[in-house]
Amino acid sequence: MSDTISGFNIFAYKYYNYCDIPEEAKNFKKNNEYIYNEGYTIISILNTVDILGAMTLRFNPWDSMNDKYLEYCTIDFNNYPNKYTNFDMVISNPGNQNHPVYDFNIYVDGTNYLEPHNEFRPIFHIAGESRLTKIVKLYDIKINEIVDATIIQGGNSTHENTTLGIFDL
User: Fold this and answer.
1) Are 19 and 158 a contacting pair, CB within 8 Å?
2) Is the confidence at residue 99, as pLDDT, over 90?
3) How many whole angstroms separate alpha carbon 14 and alpha carbon 42?
4) pLDDT band, residue 167 (cuts 50/70/90)
5) Domain tally for the chain?
6) In terms of pTM, does the model score above 0.70?
């Protein structure tokens, strides 16, 4: 684990197969199209001391077909697998980048930042299977850049074989 001056900032991602997501997510549609027919990837954070704000996260791979679904990324389907944070955020549409690598700028749009917590909490999810590969930039509430952050994979969840991951603790 990576230690910052004031605590830990650990990001985690975990893919949930369609068979393992809640019925509410399976039945969620936009323009008569099921959004999560390939499951989704949940991004969570464990930040023990720092109050986090804006950040840039890199995903590889990213399916650019999912750009149109970003507005639904914070729907908390029955607190599954854990209750989402109340982070007031906006994720910028990645637009045309170096496929399949995409950077997402995330900024605070309101007064709720990512308060410190001693457990992993989901921040958002994205349709399909993606991998968080880099924390490009991370800032605290005072817009001081935080240099140290760690990424871990929570394991994949499949219908046939569920790997226990960080969200199952």
Assistant:
1) yes
2) no
3) 5
4) very low
5) 1
6) yes
Task: Kindly state the DSSP code that residue 133 receives in the 8-state scheme.
Answer: E
Q: Choose among 39, 50, 24: nearest CA to 156.
A: 39
Sole residue written with tokens 């008569």: 32
| Pairwise CA distance, residues 30 & 19, whole Å | 20
Domain assignment present for 168: no
Percent of the chain with pLDDT over 70: 86
Residue tagged 């650019």 (tokens): 64
Residues contacting 30, CB < 8 A, separation 6+: 68, 69, 72
Q: How is residue 93 written in tokens?
A: 């549409």
pLDDT of residue 3: 43
> Measured between alpha carbons, how far is 144 from 123 in angstroms, rounded to an integer?
20
Over range 58-67, report the average pLDDT.
82
Tokens of 6: 């004031």
Q: What contacts 154, CB < 8 A, 6 or more positions away? A: 12, 13, 14, 42, 44, 165, 166, 167
Whether 2 maps to a domain, the answer reads no
Edge-to-edge strands of the sheet including 52-59? 89-91, 102-108, 52-59, 132-140
- Asked if the structure places residue 85 within a domain, the reply is yes
d(CA 126, CA 159): 19
Strand partners, 117: none
